[in-house]
Amino acid sequence: RFAEHGIDSMATYRQLLREGAFPQDRFGDLFLVIDGWSTLTSEFEDLVPAVVALANRGLGFGVHLIVAANRWMDLRMNVRDMFGTRLELKLGDPLDSVIGRRQQATVPDQTPGRGLTPDAFHFLAAVPRIDGRSTDDGLADAVSQLVTSVNQAWGRPPAPPVRLLPDELPYDQLPPAERTRQQGIPIGIAERDLQPVYLDLREDPHLLLFADVQCGKSSFLRLLASGIMRQFSPEEAQIAVVDFRRSLLGVVPDEYLVGYASNADLLQQMVQLTVESMTKRLPTGEITPEQLRNRSWWSGPELFLLVDDYDLVATSPHTNPLTGLLDLLTQGRDIGFHLIVTRRSGGAGRALFDPVLSRIRDLASPGILMSGNREEGPLLGNLRLEKLPPGRGWLVTRTDGPQLVQLAYLPPAE
Fold first, then answer.
1. Which contiguous run of DSSP H or E holds residue 299?
2. Which tens digit of pLDDT belongs to each residue from 357-390?
3. Residues 198, 200, 204, 206: what is their CA dihedral angle, to the nearest 10 degrees?
4. What global pTM score does this model have?
5. 384 and 371 in contact (C-beta within 8 Å)?
6. 189 and 393 Cβ atoms separated by less than 8 Å
7. 307-341 b/e with 16+ CB inside 10 Å = b?
């Protein structure tokens, strides 16, 4: 907006706001308050670069950053220098002071609100209450009363609330299939803009998902299977299911279901049939460049192989039937073959050495990290597992990078 309207400073923008130039902007200045900087850096590492960017450039656009920390050392030197106003309350060690060690030692103990100004003078902070009491006893109730009084006295519309991801996103709230054919299969909404998120399995044919128990693995496969069937006819897409726990029984109707493997023997037969049919689609030396671009040298439906609870399938690398598909994975986009794998997050760090999972990662396929143990280490790029509500996870793609999404919930059929 500054560039579009030739605005040179925040002062000019405030003047334009007072004149009603931008009625869609209900506020001019924005204050971001972070109570506990060390918590932000330890538990929300992905947000730190954005906050640092606000500290560097935000003030010029009316974004003010107010941060509380236990120690000055919690803030890196390049971040600390961005704060023009600094106050010190009583520190645990006067040597940590950046205003004055000698003056910090004179700040009395057990006296909340006493501290030092940037000029090393003592100050006493006011208590945020309007009930006439000069004490911090019952401060929580007094602050609540203050907020209530301000809201009642404010005659204009309130500030717009920050929109958050819902705890549960019903499947019927996703866009209709006919409107999303070109974008891909809708699977949920993103935190950054609360807009639908799509999986384009024609461009990125495979997908890998890690999640803890009862956090949404089988629900995601139900969601994905339903999205495939909403967008493709049985002549355009066929679905094969590997489901050792039998949690996906009845999800795919007969006209779409090309195979259902609930044990190792059935899976072995399924892999053999898949290899035979997909090998016929591999390009030969007689294929022209135009045919390669249009994928017109073969005809038939796309094949989607959905694997639930991969840890039950790959109990040993020597007895894993899915290793027979390794040569097809690299050609998946050209021959219409898609492998979608979900796995329990426990032991995921070791599982990445599995040949099938390793091949999927090497192909830069999309991945989803849902709730799990952080100690498993980085699984997709630099992302680690973390505790998340059911249905929520980090979607990592080549084009958009990592983004936090809430997957739509499709309950199992009765």
1. none
2. 999 999 999 999 999 998 898 898 888 888 999 9
3. 70
4. 0.80
5. no
6. no
7. bbbbbbbbeeeeebbbbebeebbebbbbbbbbbbb
